Amino acid sequence: MITNKTSGQVISKKERCAKNIFTQALGLMFTWKKQNLVMKFSRGKRISLHNCFVFYPLEVIVLDTEMKVVEVKQKFKPFTLFWKSKEKGVYLLELGLDSSKRLCEIGDFVEVN
Which domains does the chain have, with CATH numbers? Predict the structure, then answer.
């Protein structure tokens, strides 16, 4: 479950977790059903993504080590070649479910259970 601790809203009740480099590289590619994904990296870094072979738009949220929202990319369209975060992040949320989008702003704190 993903919760916005600042507003108290539930962002996602069910999501996939990408824990290794293979599942992080695959992300939500080749998924037809909209879903959410959480990635955790070993260190803070600028995150590069593409949306090739993802068939629905995503909202991308970058979190720092304290789980604070440092960047939000809305409307990351399907088959977009590249996007790179301006801020360094340790966690990344890929939100595909429409009910999960537009629930976080920069400066909010998020909890992932």
Answer: 2-112 (2.60.120.1140)
Q: Is residue 78 a contact partner of residue 55, using CB atoms and an 8 Å limit?
A: yes
Distance, in Å, from the CA atom of 63 to the CA atom of 80, rounded to the nearest integer, reads 22
- Is the separation of the CB atoms in 11 and 95 below 8 Å? yes
Residue 2 CB-density burial (10 A; 0-12 exposed, 13-18 middle, 19+ buried) = buried
pLDDT tens digits along 2-32: 999 999 999 999 999 998 999 999 999 999 9
Find all residues with CB under 8 Å of 82, minimum gap 6, and list them.
48, 49, 50
Q: Give tens-digit pLDDT for 57-99.
A: 999 999 999 999 999 999 999 998 899 999 999 999 999 999 9
